[in-house]
Design goal:
Elements (H helix, E strand, L loop, with lengths): L2 H9 L3 E3 L4 H6 L9 E3 H7 L11 E10 L2 E8 L9 E7 L13 H12 L3 E5 L15 H17 L1 H4 L1 E11 L1 H11 L20 E5 L22 H9 L11 H9 L2 H4 L7 E6 L8 H13 L3 E6 L15 H16 L2
Helix pairs in contact: 4-12
């Protein structure tokens, strides 16, 4: 990540401006709304990651659906060791604020993929439609991100025999916005979020989910406040993502807006019989504040749902800060072990 944005995580100011000198010269062209600053969403939307150099077999750019003018793709990473029978699946949904990001993997996500493909998993990473927040003419909303991710599961179910995968052993996994999507895939059902008519008959549930610092509830925007410093997530921000309108207030919203907000809030779906979830969150996260983890934990306790919340002391929006506890390698090991044990039940 660009150093200016790492610094921004410490201060709560997630903007890149001319004051950042060399960084502005490199990334200033990403200022889509021409307000003199590059937001984290604009930065994420404009930067493409190179494809990972993978020493195992990977099938890239598999078309799983078409939505309007967009062709949506997934990459399928096969087990790096021979396996007997059908493989369990790690199903990865990327972060990027629902408006940016890429299916290409790197860093800690790559490490999770490496460990699990060594243990016989097929790992899948997919792209989904992104919300063009600064284009009022674009109709894609956050809900479409969820629909696409659900359709990706349906596509895998449709082709499970030729892919030699076991769709009863799927673990959804994501970070940040992708963590939110993973929570929704874990708690909602196979018939929820219908999308492509040619895929809907292929029912696909997940056995478990893993969320790294994903938000859990949009009905209460105070959950996104962190000591008054996080101006990035204003009510206008959520309006652009959820409703494509200029303002947002759940308490006073029209019934259709309230319903949309509810179904995009993972906690709204949480029940005693929901699939198990591991949620890992830094206690110094300025982007998705840690109260989301606390809120999720309390909701799970109220309905006796199988949700494990692990706080990481000293961590922000990721695991790169030195001295965090548990440390980076432990977080990755917890993630891998949870996926393996839950997929093998």
């Amino acid at each position: 990540m660009n150093n200016a944005f790492v610094k921004g995580e410490t201060t709560g100011d997630w903007k890149l401006s001319e004051a950042d000198g060399e960084s502005w010269g490199k990334y200033g062209s990403l200022d889509a709304n021409q307000d003199g600053a590059v937001s984290f969403e604009e930065f994420s939307s404009g930067v493409e990651l190179p494809a990972l150099k993978w020493d195992g077999k990977v099938t890239r750019n598999v078309v799983y659906k078409r939505a309007g003018s967009e062709t949506l793709l997934m990459d399928i990473y096969e087990p790096r060791q021979p396996t007997d029978g059908k493989a369990p699946v790690l199903y990865y949904t990327h972060g990027g604020g629902w408006s940016g990001g890429s299916k290409e993997i790197s860093g800690d996500i790559q490490r999770v993929f490496e460990h699990l493909t060594d243990r016989g998993f097929v790992c899948v990473s997919l792209m989904y439609r992104l919300v063009k927040m600064w284009n009022p003419k674009d109709t894609v909303r956050m809900r479409d991100c969820v629909v696409d991710c659900r359709d990706g599961l349906r596509f895998l179910k449709k082709h499970e025999h030729e892919l030699n995968i076991d769709m009863t052993r799927v673990v959804a996994f994501g970070s940040s916005a992708g963590g939110h999507l993973a929570q929704l895939l874990t708690f909602s059902g196979a018939d929820d979020f219908p999308g492509d008519d040619t895929l809907h008959s292929h029912k696909a549930e997940v056995a478990a989910g893993i969320s790294w610092f994903g938000p859990s509830d949009f009905r209460d925007t105070s959950l996104f406040e962190w000591s008054g410093s996080n101006k990035k997530f204003s009510s206008d921000h959520w309006a652009r993502l959820i409703t494509k309108s200029k303002t947002f207030d759940y308490e006073t919203a029209e019934p259709d807006v309230r319903r949309m907000t509810e179904e995009l809030s993972p906690i709204w779906w949480l029940r005693k019989d929901s699939a198990p979830l591991l949620h890992i969150h830094g206690d110094k996260d300025f982007v998705i504040p840690p109260q989301h983890a606390e809120h999720l934990k309390k909701a799970a306790e109220r309905c006796d749902a199988d949700v494990t919340v692990q706080m990481v002391t000293g961590a922000g929006h990721g695991w790169w800060t030195p001295g965090i506890e548990p440390d980076r390698s432990t977080v990755i090991r917890m993630t891998v072990n949870f996926a393996q044990t839950r997929a093998l039940r």
